[in-house]
């Protein structure tokens, strides 16, 4: 069994941490410190009973087998107690380290240099006091910090397991994985445990790589979404300005309609004025004709017309001038009215065209936004499923189409 092999690999002197190490243990060719043998698997009652019946069943009496199981349980109990003492050693070492570092931090400040000085001083003290190597002291501290609070590790892990797991770069997830493996198969070898750890770390690295890849893709997509949002905001702002321009054009058109109504009113007034002037001119003309019929034409020495005839003629001429002036005003007003009506029709047509264009642009923006969202969703699904090769042709064709469309957009932008 692996437990017996591990026990053979560890010197019996490791049970007594106060005993001096052999000479040359700290030399350049010295082997790495091993954990004390109490850090081996501690079987429970069920395991002991099964093992005793596996080796002694059919050869020994049941009472003797029960006695062997009881004695073995005493060994397991003692081992747990010894393990607790070793944990206390590691805990005391760790507490000394923390106390000295806290004092150095209080006096010298919390800096890497002060903590390093305190740590070095503690190691030197423990090495001198207990005549053990620094790696031995460090092993106790690290074992205490990593496994003292993990009941599963204490119960199921073996010596070689803890030596493989004690590194700081191995997380709790790997420790729990090895504990579960030991629960399922206590006979796993050192090589199998190290392979499990290596495979699990490889899986974690692969997952981290894929996570980083997906994170980068999400970051790129987020950047594209930000760019799309900026473009949409810019186009929305342009559409807003276009809407404001349309509203202003509508106000101008309403002003034109007001001017047109005022011109029509003035036209009506001028038409009334022209009609009155025309009636007055007709009346004056009739009066002039009647007066002319009453006057007999003959040669008289008087060179001038009578005053009332002269006044009537002047009044008729004045009325004719007023008529001509009113007619000219009416013609000018008619021309202005026609120009206003033409302007109104042109502005109405332009407003209608701009409204159609605005609806078209808004619809285009909405469809483009929907397309971008659908594309990003599809790309994430393809990335999550790892199906890049299956859709590479589709993405290439889509890239070509988008590239051609991008050229059209640039040409349209330059033309504008």
TrEMBL record:
Keywords: Coiled coil, Plasmid. Residues 1-19 have a biased composition (Basic and acidic residues). Residues 1-33 are annotated as: Disordered. Residues 218-357 form a coiled coil. This is Chromosome partition protein Smc. It comes from Paraburkholderia sprentiae WSM5005.
């Amino acid at each position: 069994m692996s437990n017996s092999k591990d026990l053979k690999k560890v010197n019996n002197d490791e049970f007594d941490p106060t005993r001096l190490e052999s000479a040359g243990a700290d030399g350049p060719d010295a082997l790495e410190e091993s954990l004390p043998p109490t850090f081996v698997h501690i079987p429970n009652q069920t395991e002991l009973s099964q093992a005793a019946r596996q080796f002694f069943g059919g050869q020994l009496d049941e009472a003797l087998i029960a006695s062997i199981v009881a004695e073995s349980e005493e060994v397991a109990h003692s081992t747990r107690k010894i393990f607790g003492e070793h944990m206390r050693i590691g805990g005391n070492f760790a507490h000394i380290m923390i106390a000295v570092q806290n004092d150095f931090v209080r006096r010298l400040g919390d800096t890497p240099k002060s903590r390093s000085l305190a740590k070095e001083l503690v190691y030197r003290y423990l090495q001198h006091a207990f005549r053990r190597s620094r790696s031995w002291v460090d092993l106790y501290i690290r074992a205490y910090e990593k496994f003292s609070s993990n009941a599963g590790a204490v119960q199921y892990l073996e010596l070689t397991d803890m030596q493989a797991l004690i590194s700081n770069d191995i997380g709790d997830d790997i420790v729990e994985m090895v504990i579960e493996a030991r629960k399922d198969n206590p006979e796993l070898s050192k090589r199998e445990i190290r392979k499990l750890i290596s495979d699990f770390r490889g899986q974690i690295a692969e997952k981290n790589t894929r996570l980083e890849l997906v994170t980068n893709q999400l970051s790129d997509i987020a950047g594209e979404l930000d760019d799309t949002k900026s473009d949409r905001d810019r186009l929305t702002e342009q559409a807003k300005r276009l809407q404001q321009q349309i509203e202003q054009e509508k106000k101008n058109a309403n002003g034109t309609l007001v001017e047109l109504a005022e011109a029509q009113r003035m036209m009506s007034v001028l038409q009334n004025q022209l009609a009155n002037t025309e009636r007055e001119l007709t009346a004056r003309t009739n009066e002039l004709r009647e007066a002319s019929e009453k006057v007999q034409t003959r040669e008289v020495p008087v060179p001038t017309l009578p005053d009332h005839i002269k006044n009537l003629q002047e009044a008729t001429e004045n009325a004719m001038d007023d008529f001509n002036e009113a007619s000219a005003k009416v013609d000018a007003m008619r021309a202005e009215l026609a120009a206003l009506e033409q302007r109104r029709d042109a502005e109405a047509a332009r407003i209608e065209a701009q409204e159609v264009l605005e609806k078209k642009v808004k619809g285009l923006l909405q469809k483009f936004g929907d397309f971008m969202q659908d594309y990003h969703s599809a790309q994430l699904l393809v990335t999550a499923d790892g199906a890049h090769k299956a859709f590479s042709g589709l993405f290439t064709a889509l890239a070509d189409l988008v590239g051609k469309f991008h050229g059209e957009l640039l040409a349209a932008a330059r033309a504008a």
